[in-house]
Design brief:
Blueprint (H helix, E strand, L loop, with lengths): L1 H17 L1 H30 L10 E7 L12 H10 L3 E16 L2 E10 L1 H6 L6 E2 L14 E4 L1 H8 L9 E4 L2 E8 L15 E4 L16 E6 L5 H18 L1 H4 L3 E6 H6 L2 H33 L1 H9 L4 H37 L14 H17 L2 H8 L3 H5 L7 H36 L10 E7 L6 H16 L4 E7 L9 E7 L7 E12 L3 H5 L3 E4 L13 E5 H7 L9 E4 L2 E9 L14 E5 L8 E7 L7 H11 L4 E2 L3 E2 H8 L1 H35 L1 H9 L4 H33 L12 H26 L4 H5 L3
Parallel strand pairs: 3-8, 5-7, 14-19, 16-18
Antiparallel strand pairs: 1-9, 1-10, 2-3, 2-6, 2-9, 4-7, 5-8, 6-7, 11-20, 11-21, 11-22, 12-20, 13-14, 13-17, 15-18, 16-19, 17-18
Helix pairs in contact: 1-11, 2-9, 2-11, 2-12, 3-6, 9-13, 9-15, 9-21, 11-12, 11-13, 15-21, 15-23, 15-24, 16-19, 21-23, 21-24, 23-24
Amino acid sequence: MLEDIRTDIRYTTRMLVKAPGFTLPVMATIALAIGAITAVFATLHSIVLQPLPFGGSSRVVSLCETNPSLPAGWCGSSPANVEDWRRQARTLENAGVARNESFVARDGAVSYGVRGGIASPGFFDVLQVKPSLGRRLEERDLETGANHVAIISHTFWVEHLGSDPAAVGRSIVLDRTPFTVIGVLPARVWLPDTFADVDVWKPLTASIDDVTKRSWRGFVAIGRLAPGVTRTQFMSEMAVIRAQLAAAYPESNKDWGFQSIDFREHLVGDYSATLWLFLGMAALVLLIACVNVAGLLLVRTTARAAELAVRTAVGAGRRRLVTQLLTESALMSLAGGAAGLLIGAWATRLFVLIAPADTPRLSEVTLDWPVVLFTFVLVAAISIVFGIAPARRAWNADVTATLKGLRGSTAADVRTRSALTAAQLAFALMLLFGAGLLARTFVRFASWDPGFERSNLSTTWMLPPNAHDPQATITMMERVREAVATLPGIQSAALGSAGPLFGGEESGELKVVGRSGVPGTGLANVNWFDIDAHYFSTLGVPIRKGRAFSPADTASAPPVAVVNQALADRAFPGKDAIGQQVVVEQHPATIVGIVADTSPLEPNAATPPEIYWPIQQYPRGAAYLILRTGGTSAPAQQLLRSRVAAVNPDIQLNAIMTLDERFARRLVSPKFNMLLVGFFAAIAGVLAALGVYSVAAYAVATRTREFAVRMALGSTPTQLVTGVLREGVRLAAIGIVAGSIGAVLVGRALTTILFGVSPVDPLTFGGTAALLAVIAVQAAWWPARRASRIDPSAALRGQ
């Protein structure tokens, strides 16, 4: 048996080398399909299936406070509530919170911005973070006076402390306040992507903001369940504790619920479903490839019918011939699979390079041994799948008829081949339809109109020193705005905490004073921003009613607010919002103006209710500097920085970017989805074309004598071409009808990443169906053309 296998391998290798026109397309088809599915599976395995890289990660959960008015996917918690949960819940081993902050560090006369974070000791304990030098945060570090300590990253240690092994105990200056280094994190420490770039960690209580406010829920909170505790047990205990806290602190905790989410699942979020979807699409490509290769092998087996018949006549058994054909398919699949593994490794690296930067666990994506094993198991399986058709053809071959020159095929062969090709076309339609939906989504994103002129706008994040003195900070930022506004090419400048496409959004519950005689709930989730008097005019947002802010709206003036039209319509239906008194985040104000809505980036999404405060009346430690320029490019970085440094050299500026550049970054994710599925669809389209071609070629090869007889009896070449094309059109129609059901399922599966486009969009379906029909007809044309050029006399003589 071993000698037979060696003989088959040697013979098959010679045969494949002698037929590069057949071997190379088959191997390329296998390699492309295997490469695509390997890359997607490697990404899925690293991001979704692999456990988080620290001990006991399966017991870690995200702790989220809930409110019916909050957007889906929001997860934040109050540090004060988390601390109470940690102390009272026996099912909770530990818990902690963290959030990002920015610091200004000073080294002698040089100051520089630092990516910072604040955290409670439990945050590092839950993640099992252990410093390579020193210690991590402890409860004693939260006490006033003792909280001037810091943990630094390995990068900060190398770049700013010169890799000093005695760095623990050294003092660093942050926001003009000395902090003692108590720990240095390892170079390869694992932290959630949100905090992966943090260089300096301070204790929670060292924040510039008041973290004791129980109503402030802008923190990431995580907990580790006690050993042996189930999620059900934990939630049961938390229900009791939550009810107790709601009764003890009704102002901040009333109407707020709680949920826990597996930490890994929470990190991955919607990417899990998206990656499974991409794997399914890659599997469709693989199915199309298997059908395609099986078709090519079947055509080749038909062409070798005479050779196989002679070998049978001189003593080769059917089992021997089938073994050789299966060996041929196995060799090609192994060679194609090896090439596919290389393509998969390259495609995985390419995925990491071009994937959206906010993709969770992106830095962990790699092609490891489980992925390699998956690939070779897959290769072994498909070598059997696409080897069945030619083996079956050889087993059922009529040796006598073949030796007489009668090379026809059975009706079962024709039906099987046609059914497989129709399935191939159906799969291709599903992928083309998905790519079309994502392309239309991208177009809808790209045509976003915020309601003002977004060109000629530039922004940069400005972080002044003295963050602990908000009023002094605001005064300094206003001086910067005045200095920058006089630069050549700058038409106007403004300050704001956030805005369309730049900055974050903070939200709170809106209460309307005087409703039903007492402060009443208006909207439970209102986005709020602090801006200066030049914000709306710089962006070009129209004032619908009332007035914008003025320089007179200072800290000593009566508190005022401006709302957008969406808030005015929802909170005051049929009433005038001007003059109404509202409270958000314990900040009372009188509404003095209504501005036009700024359209959300997501097509067809409703504009959220928004409220704006004067930056003087709600001072913050940093702000965006917004510039309206006379040209499309951003102002000169050096000139702008020198003007800012003239006000105060310690002020830190991030990179200056145009709003269009920021907008382009937001387009990365929909563009990536479109290109990835479009790549699968392109492969599917090519393979579907090859499938139709192989069917038509197979038909021509097996009906040569029939065509010769028909031509001898008077049929014209045009009639023969029409007959072959009719078969291609029939297969396309069957594939389109069968694929329409799958296309609907694909559309439904893509719903989470579609925006402004129906998952059953008829225009997209009609376009992709028409495209597939054209591909099928073109693919059938070449074999049809060959059929029209048959020499009847030669064909009838069996030549």
